[in-house]
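Example protein as discussed:

>
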Amino acid sequence: MEKAIKNLAGLGKRLSASEDLKEEIKNAVGKNPWFIELFVQHAVDAVINEMLDEQKLKEWLKPYELRAVNRTIGLIFAGNIPLVGFHDFMCCYVAGCKMKIKLSSKDDALFLFVLKTFSEIDEEINEKVEIVDTLKNFDAVIATGSDNTNRYFEYYFRDYPKILRKNRNSVAILNGEETKEDLAKLADDIFLYFGFGCRNVSKLYVPVGYKFEKLFPAFESYKWLHTHNKYMNNYDYQRTLLLMNSIQHLSNDFVMLREHTSIASPIATLHFEFWHDENVLNTHLKQNEEKIQCIVSKNNFGTAQHPELSDYADGADTMKFLLSL
């Protein structure tokens, strides 16, 4: 374990000092129109500072009785946000597993660069990791995809130990007493990565009588979104649907707020629902926990895209799963 931690921490230091990384970020931006430099840099910084910090790695791994897991794990990475599959890779590395990784064509350049950089620290990584187009000859699988893709995964991997992740979204609970600074942090939870991440807030729970005029000024730091062509195509399409169907909503130049029961919302749209009783709200959230990735409120606005190493996606403990094989 100590060697794995040292190697991972060394990777963090090497990436942090890498001049070539800046060029790879530009390559990633060039391949995917939804990857802009600001957001890719944010994802890279999160990996370096929050996943590859030596002390954080030690604290994360303390509860586990680590051993070498002599298994080959098939990994299917999603491509919704940059380096989204890195945590799964890291778990497999710490557990001593071999990996067969199917990358998303939307997000392959950065991971390949990270893997190449890691091989300069641990030369054996090239023997442990194989990048594949199709998964074959593996012992267990960890796959992330949409709800539709997940139905295929369930069938195809039915005979294997597995972690299969579906669509999830995140929600925010407001009490009406938030400051402008609180709401500015909430804006990060909503708009980072254009809202594509499972940890992005797609729905607000607001108290009855909430003054919505507080929100739009606090979102001003993301006003530049109206200059992004693909994002605004989504905005224009959703706004047209709302207007054509005479659906009440609030809007500014780059986001719409619509009252809706669904937790998931389209890009450039934010759903909201009123609450009046905290116990009723908590019961509702409990009933929908399989659709919710994380919950933010006044105490932790701005943290949705800064998960701890132990904040496993969909609540499935990846390290525990690997060590059980």
